[in-house]
UniProtKB/TrEMBL annotation:
Chain intervals with Acidic residues compositional bias: 400-417
Compositionally skewed regions (Basic and acidic residues) per UniProt: 390-399
Name of the protein in question: V(D)J recombination-activating protein 2
Biased amino acid composition, Polar residues: 368-383
Encoding gene (name): RAG2
Highest taxon of the lineage: Eukaryota
Principal localisation: nucleus
Residue ranges, annotated region (Disordered): 362-417
Signal sequence coordinates: 1-15
Residue ranges of domain Recombination activating protein 2 PHD in the record: 421-499
Keyword vocabulary terms for this entry: Chromatin regulator, DNA recombination, Isomerase, Metal-binding, Nucleus, Signal, Zinc, Zinc-finger
Molecular function terms from GO: isomerase activity
Subcellular compartments: Nucleus
Family: Belongs to the RAG2 family.
Organism: Xenoophorus captivus
Amino acid sequence: TWWIMTLQPLTPVNCASLLQPGCSLLQLDGEILLFGQKGWPKRLCPTGIFGVRFKNGEMKLRAISFSNDSSYLPPLRCPAVCRLDPYDGLPETYLIHGGRTPNNEISSCLYLLTMDSRGCNRKLVLKCKEKELVGEVPGARYGHAMSIVQSRGKTACVMFGGRSYIPTGERTTERWNSVVDCPPQVFLFDLEFGCSSAHTLPELSDGQSFHVALAREDCVYFIGGHSITSDSRPPRLFRLRVELLQGSPLLSCETLDSGLSISSAIITRTGPSHRYIVLGGYQSDSQKRMECSTILLDEKGIHIDHLEPPRWTPDIIHSRTWFGGSAGDGCILLAVPTEGRPSQPDVHYFYHVSFQQEKEYSEEERTQACSQESTDYENSTPLEDSEELYFGREPHELENSSDDEGDTYNEEDEEDESQTGYWTKCCLGCQVNPNTWEPYYSTELHRPAMIFCSKGEGGHWVHAQCMELSETLLVKLSQGSKKYFCLDHGGLPYQEMTPPRQVIPVRRTPMKVKDRNGAFMFKMSPSKKSFFKRLFD
């Protein structure tokens, strides 16, 4: 099959600094979502997940909210992400495991991300739940891969590869943040009960990370990957077959030929069939993989063919690194660094790469689509934001509707937290300095704990540490519904004040003198009494 590829430059609208290498693009309920933003989430989007919109050569982000009963999902770089299609009444779900936080901590948690609801204006509300695994649980890691397999009417998740910090007992000052390949074990767990099991296969003798994992029915294919031990990217290709038997599962692995020497590749699906396009990645530490490939999974196995890449721009050709993700069927968001050019205000150049079959084009359209300078985006996969489709509006009103500028994320709208918010001067004796602050309570992570003072009509926020609150009392006040008044406005409410400590007098038993017959009387003359009185006075 012949493919037509377009490479369209994108202009990020006040959102370029949020994208970073290791971020993930998800496709949930028809929307493209950005996960793994740079840094910790801020006020305009506390969830750290954004809806991505491509329109008229521009890229805009919109903050996505979570339901009230959702678990906290930190921004994770290089996690294992896989999509679970709806089955047995369960909704469309994304599984997210591991990854690195902005503090360079490696996570071992498994999260389930689903759509919670859509409002009357089609706003997407997500729901995140942390899934606890039992049994042989995979440790903290990043750069690994997860896939969904189906066998004998059952569904399970396969996890393999990744990197982690060296064991605690082997860490030294010089090698404290050194990473190693995780042991080459295959983890298999079910999503209903969270039972996990580890399997060692002789064919998988070396650890690998940042590889490609594609699944079809009961088979998972591992392609490429990087090994820290050998510092190489061998053209490996493994086929893992999983049989979910009634008792224990049966796993078998086979080494195949015609693999790819690649790591950190971008994969996009081109339709309902198991046909994929591989773009990007690295052949070595100093060489990007400029070629493209198509991968087809069918009953006979896996088929890998070469695909003519688009005409890369000079910025892409000369860049040392690049990253991106799938932005829909046959579409890829590609980012390359500006390489420190002071004339470029943005951190990265962004491109939208789209792949479509040649038979869908006429001769005139083919000429236009092959042109890199073309900015006509109507022929590529539509990625219009579904939020524009409001209920009760006519078709002609939708055509002329605005771009919902009020909902678009804008970095300039973020408040300077060095002057407001958590770092404000809460009282006359406030001692919280954003430059020297360190966590005081166990619940604090990267911001000081605050409590609301109800004095006056509007009230104000104060730092719990400045109010000299104990951690027990802070937790009790945060869980209760009673009003709090800071030290400048009356102190604690009497209902929540710690009751005074009751000092129980110690009962002293007088000593008994052995063989005492009666009271002991000490006779003293008046002159001696006067002398001792003057002495002790």
